[in-house]
Amino acid sequence: MWRTPFFFVTVFLLAVLSLVIAQSRGDYPTSSAVVTQKSWRPLFTVPATADHGRNMLANIDDPMAVDPQVSCPGYKAGNVQRNANGFTATLTLAGKACNVYGTDIQSLNLSIEHQAKDRLHVEIIPTVLDASNISQFILSPHLVDAPEVDHSGWHGSDLVIDWGNEPSFYFTVSRASTQDTLFSTKGSKLVFENQFLEFKSPLPENYNLYGLGEAIHGLRLGNNLTRTIYAADVGDPIDRYYEVDGSNGKLTPFSGNSPDRLKSYTSISHGVYLRNAHGQEVLLRPEGITWRTIGGSIDLYFYAGPSQVEVTKSFQLTATGLPAMQQYWTFGFHQCRWGYRNWSEVENVVLNYEKFGIPLEAIWIDIDYMELYRDFTVDHVAFPADVGRSFLQRLHDGGRYLVPIIDSAIYSPNPENASDAYDVYTRGEAQGVFMTNPDGSLYVGAVWPGYTVFPDWLSKNAAQWWVDSITAWHKEIPFDGIWIDMNEVSSFCIGSCGSKNLTLNPVHPPFVLPGEPGNIPYDYPEGFSVTNATEAASASAASSSQAAAATSPAAASSTTVSYYRPEVTLGARDTNYPPYVINNVQDGHDLASHAVSPNATHADGTQEYDVHNLFGHLILNATYHGLTSVFPEKRPFIIGRSTFVGSGKWAGHWGGDNFSKWAYMFFSIPQALSFSLFGIPMFGVDTCGFSGNADEELCNRWMQLSAFFTFYRNHNVIGTIPQEAYVWASVAKAAKDAMYIRFQLLPYIYTLMYQAHTTGSTVMRALAWEFPDDPSLASADRQFLLGASIMVTPVLSQGATTVDGVFPGAGDGTVWYDWYTGALVEATAGQNMTIDAPLGHIPIYIRGGSVLPLQEPAMTTTQARKNPWGILAALGSDGKAIGSLYVDDGESVVPDTMLWVEASASNSTLSASAQGQFRDTNVLANITILGVLPEVTKVSLNGVDLPNDWAYDGSSKALEIKGLDKAMAGGAWSQDWVLTWG
């Protein structure tokens, strides 16, 4: 959903109303001025100023900010106690407390533990008996799992730790096999205050660092970037952290060079994970990395690797948990938009996809379907129950699915009007499941329905209340999955703005929605002025007029910036205005701007300040259990916006509110690759862009690119032009062409997901992960791999008809084949090649050495799973290839039976062997083998010659065998078989 605060300039007032909104948290606004109408509900809109944060300057940019490395004394280690797996010590402040951005904690406990052969744990927490730590929040395992401990066999670990006290306490983690320093606080000071922690480490020159959460940025982060980690509801800004998805991303693999790097290059990767849920900044600079948090503890895990593959697998196996296995249908194509106004419009979209022959798996509905935007309701005027039941029956009968949105805030009804009663709220309030103010009253913010309360996932009843709500609602609208939005968690006003105003419950958000007067979306992608000059000129003129009308003279002439620098109160915490101001993307860097305020309070007394970044994670967990209640035997399908470490166990993710711009299509690739690192392989973006108007060329290219992401959805904002795949003829054809390939590859993609689910491997992969010893690939994120075998090289710029691409490993024996022709690519090692890519064509390549299971496409996955099988074997330079296939019922949490097929080729022989009891009766229709040398004169299956059903192309060196359905009528995998040629 579009949630961007910079559209708040103009407010669409339904009535003129004087209301003073208190800016301080805990002060509740009141008003006696009410404009009434015939209905009970007043015409009222929360003013846009209600969401304006305090003017601040983040310390990272503040020229007057105190440098804690200069002012603070650091610590000294003492009372060192060695044990079988490491040692413990007490850290004592090494001098006078600096109290720069909080109260210095005098005494800390240090624990160093070899938890496994490839993992080292460094933990620093306040000493329990130290009164200065009275309000310190330590993240508990029941909120975020702590990596499992397995002390067996850690001796001989490649990770070595050293420490010292001069000039103050430091620790150094190094690799025994290479003597490389991986992380060291030597030469810097540890700063540990009740609202500020800082530690830092130098890094090698031109280091390669990845991860650190979701942002619109290249995959390789570079050495001049500040990454803020704080859950924020905002449209995707380039190079700014915007959602908490990547507190996940404190997994940070590094790649290093071998000592003799002028003669050779060896990639050696390790991972660093900081388990801390507080707001954070990570400063990447040429000299190294600095970590700053506004609370919590230092809970560091070092993963030895030494490859990205090993780091990622170990991280998922021990920290995040293995990602959820998805139902087969979820890999089909999904269509959504904010603005489908009734069931008829929704069904017409489905019918149009059928009419134009474009596969469609699921239709999604945005907040339009709700009654007054209230969760777990349906507007039965626009979405009548009988019409809905009839449509959904037809949808399900056709093998298609429905996924509705659920937002994260709950409407708080007018207490003076019985007709406004809202059962979801009433049950929740009775069970004490909502956040409160510090004085115990309900915390009431404002979101889409008006004044809202927010689930307290730390309360004992919240999870079950949410499960019950989902279960009851499914009886009204038989959905198949759930889309969780606004779960940063977002609020459209600062503080508990509705606590004493519930009789004024607003009927409109405090900003102009797209499509309303004053916010008509006129923008188009870059290059639209070239391809559509007349339309672009008209749109530009209208946009300028709208902008001029929205800007007041006072706002236009104002250039004064006032800075607010919070002060430290010794022994206390100011959670609303912490002394260190992280570079939050919202207005004034205020943590409460467009979010629930930090001093909102949970049932156990914890403040939102300490767990804000976990709201999205915890609502996804509750939703997972809600779906298991509805579908006890089926895998829950959930797509969420804000995630954390471990969210992949329950849900997939989409990349937030992007824009219909070429840059956002480009950045979708590193976004997806980052989520592969974070253990959330089910990832996609709003194809063709969410905000702004797409055009034909952009949507043509984007529909083809997203066809090779795991989660594939088209979605755009209300008020913009339609962008369904059938809107433009060329897009319809391009989408069908790409979907045809996607459907053929679905068994391969499903197998990759199963491997990720069981081993922690990745589905979408960066070239550097498969070819780690090629330094030129360190920043490569314009191309990507699906598994090890399929490489995608999309066009990412307007007007281009060619694209440059590399073919990794070309100089080291790796061969690549063109998907469309089967021809061997004549590639040069380490060089870009110019590839023809006219509009409507996306270059796809197969890596030699791969055996791919294929299945004939259809309009839905249900139909496709009934179609014949095919095999594509692309021989490596050594004439060999391997592959595998996983088959089950496509939906069960724990399938009763499954099938695992291993296929291999060598010495002019291709064989397949299956294990498992799952019965798949689909026949094997054809086999294609690429790279066959020399010319073929004879083909046999299980020793029986196939005289007529094969053909060999001497120019492409491809062997194609058809008509196998007769020879293997019992099913492709019903018996082991061997195909030979010669």
From TrEMBL:
SUPFAM superfamilies: (Trans)glycosidases (SSF51445), Galactose mutarotase-like (SSF74650), Glycosyl hydrolase domain (SSF51011)
Signal peptide: 1-22
Keyword Cell membrane belongs to the record: no
Domain (Glycoside hydrolase family 31 TIM barrel): residue spans on this chain: 323-752
Domain Glycosyl hydrolase family 31 C-terminal, residue spans: 760-852
Record InterPro entries: Gal_mutarotase_sf_dom, GH, Glyco_hydro_31_AS, Glyco_hydro_31_C, Glyco_hydro_31_TIM, Glyco_hydro_b
One example GO MF annotation: carbohydrate binding
GO terms, biological process: carbohydrate metabolic process
Superkingdom of the organism of origin: Eukaryota
Pfam families: Glyco_hydro_31_2nd, Glyco_hydro_31_3rd
Catalytic activity: Hydrolysis of terminal, non-reducing (1->4)-linked alpha-D-glucose residues with release of alpha-D-glucose
Sorted UniProt keywords: Glycoprotein, Glycosidase, Hydrolase, Signal
PANTHER family according to UniProt: ALPHA-GLUCOSIDASE (PTHR22762), P-TYPE DOMAIN-CONTAINING PROTEIN (PTHR22762:SF133)
Family assignment from sequence similarity: Belongs to the glycosyl hydrolase 31 family.
Protein name: alpha-glucosidase
Taxonomic placement: Eukaryota, Fungi, Dikarya, Ascomycota, Pezizomycotina
